[in-house]
User: Fold Lipoprotein from Microbulbifer aggregans.
Amino acid sequence: MKRTSLIFLALILALGAVGCEQRVEKDAEQASGSPEQAKAPVAESTDEPAAQASGDQEPLIWVFRHRRAKQCYGDDMSLEESVTKLKGAGVAVHQSHCGLRTDVVYTSGCSEPTGDILLHLIRGHALDAALSEGYGPAEQIQHQKVECPKDGSGASTPESPE
Assistant:
């Protein structure tokens, strides 16, 4: 009986590990679009220094940062400020979007945080610099792209499907 229970437990753990791995791959695909799109080179912005040959071969990855938006108050970081912060740390930003975390429930109330985030596409070799500035890999969270707020309120609405 004890041996059967151990075998059953090992089987459950093995199935759980396989399920988690598939979920991580699915989340990474959703965060970056299709797998081909994530690997496709993106034209670098014109205000960057000449690209290093080794840097162009690095994969593109999405990083995120909370806007630090508080409900009822507009004390958040704009997308432009976030790009400037990354560029100041020597990180080349290829694309940027506003986003909304979908893996956390936020309570309603003034001064409570929101799920608003800022997303940036960078080269893999710049991840350490982005981490030191308070950004994290977007593949570790569930999120969706949203339209950036225009009124400074910090509130985000999901983008309409095209």
